[in-house]
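Comment thread on ticket #2218

A.B. wrote:
> Attaching the input chain for the structure job we discussed in standup.
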Amino acid sequence: MRFRVKICVSVLAIALLFGLAGVPAEAQDKQHVVSLSDLNKDAARPAQTRQSNEEAVRTLLSSDQAQKALKSANLEYQKVDKAVGQLSDEDLAKLAQRSRQAQSDFAAGRISDRDMLWIILIAVGIIVLAIALR
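C.D. wrote:
> Ran it. Output below, let me know if you need it in another format.
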């Protein structure tokens, strides 16, 4: 009789443990404040920001004025383009902000072709210096 009681108690204890082991997993899923999709979006945001910044700088450097400036400085676009990809996130963000501002000023007629060429040459200089100082 004692043996049967011990087995029953053991089986009940094991069943209870297995039953309780499943509860926290379900409760944990319900307790998350941030959803998995939000976490994925947040994780992808820095890469998207960097890609957007690289695109802004490359758009400026691929313009006709930039191509003229690169030729006058005896620089190849491919080398400068490769250097853009090697910039730190902070340097790239600053340069992208300046590139966007220069493009919008040029489109609005606030700066001349000559001023745009100087801005582009300065941007190229910043890229070269940032890569050289690493």
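A.B. wrote:
> Thanks. Noting for the ticket: Helices lie at 2-31, 36-61, 64-72, 77-85, 89-108, 113-132.
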